[in-house]
Amino acid sequence: MVLDTLGDALKNVFKKLTGSVHISEKLLDEIIKEIQRALLSSDVNVQFVFRLTKTIKERGLNEQPPTGVTPKEHIIKIVYEELVTLFGKEKKGITITKEKNKPFIIMLVGLFGAGKTTTIGKLAKYYAQRGNKVAVVGLDVHRPAAHLQLQQIAEKLSIDSYVDGKQKDPLKLWKANEKTLQSYDVVLVDTAGRDALSKDLVKEISSVSKTIQPQETLLVLSADIGQAAEKQATMFHESCNVTGVIISKLDGTAKGGGSLSACAVTGAPIVFIGVGERPEDIEVFNPEGFVGRLLGLGDLETLLEKARGLVNEEDAEDLKKRMLKGDFNLLDLYEQMSTMKKMGPLNKIAEMIPGMGGMNIPKEMLEGQQDKMDSWKFILDSCTQQELEEPELIGRQRLERIAEGSGQSITDIRGLLKQYKQSKKIMKMMKGENPEKLMKKFSGAGQKIKFK
Ligand code: GDP
Q: Which of 38, 53, 341, 355 is a good FRET partner for 309, with 20 to 30 A between their CA atoms?
């Protein structure tokens, strides 16, 4: 899961809040200590941490919760807002602009092992799924196997690749393919890396950049370098005209908070994050959604982004409608879960579903969910149309009948109904809103989000 440790620690902060009616200064101090501990252990810069917690305390003590909002909810909102600011505030991503006879060129730069080549594959898949004709070009002519690695990644994704193991001049390699590349919408360019940013590397990146004139130059940084990311991002930003940063390997390190917060202040915005080794493990970086997930509030936008790539636009719209409708039934739930199943392991997706992230669902249970889908299908087949539309009707007698008809246990059926009720409650709360506005809505309407 993305930033497991930080997320768990921050959710624990809210556990402290759940049990208390009154927010005293003492409790606020305790919460702040927990937040500090959580952020420091994920390698966020000490100064950032103290600045952030000072603001949280000041706001917590001085701001009056709006009418209908409990002090507890107000504190959650403050923590949410301040963390969003720490991680960069705005959602960035990249907008592909299409011009006749000119592809949108994205050049990736970074040190050895940062995840450049893997990220090229991820971006290729990402843009191809969104209807673009994509090509990858290997201009890392120094690392002997670089062209083969890129070619293999592209082949697996059925993406065209332009590499040449014998050509040692990146500019010649580009020139040789320039004309052919005009027929593509998006061209992703892999460049050489080094162990450190050296004059040689800057020179090479600059001359490649001058020749290929990319619309975007993205720096790939590995999350495991923690707050050291700031130095690297600043150096690359100053010498290579970096237009955005991709933080890779956020799944495999406890230092993720460090790299994200450090880069956010460099002036080079974080545009994507890498959360695994598979081609689909990439997400547009959206600080609001990201913090929402850390705190267990969910990230519907990212989920829909994923859905858009994996199911067609119509299905995605449909999924969105169902998720936001609020008055959905058991069949909707099943369809929703089936669509999500296509998006990858449920435990990853669960973090993004508003409400599920904060429910402390044991990982093993979530993994088991994959199998549950099959059992649910049997259960739904044994329900009457009326039961599917109004699951509230299902009492003891009906439970026994469904159990017998479907060959599934009563516990399984109860589990399905429980999940339905939880989802319905959350969907209702979000009705008509986009997730960015969730916090505003729940403060305005005085809705309660329970953190276990
Ligand atoms: P390059 O030298 O910058 O081209 O780096 P590579 O693309 O070869 O990646 C180096 C290693 O990092 C490979 O083993 C990748 O599988 C791994 N890697 C890249 N991105 C991610 C990610 O987001 N998560 C994880 N867990 N591993 C990644």
A: 355
Work out the average pLDDT over 171-188: 96
The CA 276 to ligand 1 mean position distance, Å, reads 8
337 pLDDT higher than 70: no
Establish whether residue 281 lines the binding site of ligand 1, counting it when its CB lies within 6 angstroms of any ligand atom.
Answer: yes
Atom of ligand 1 nearest to the CA of 114: 3
Both structure tokens of 337: 């879960």
SS3 content of the chain, % helix, strand, coil (to 5): 60, 10, 30
Residue 312's pLDDT is what? 57
Q: Any idea what the Cα angle at residue 231 is, between residues 225 and 234, rounded to 5°?
A: 125
User: Which of 44, 60, 86 is where one domain is finished?
Assistant: 86
Ligand 1, atom nearest to 111 Cα: 3
**pLDDT of res. 212:** 95
Element of type H or E holding 216: strand 216-222
Distance between first and last Cα of the chain = 19
CATH number at residue 12: 1.20.120.140
Which pLDDT score is estimated for 184?
96
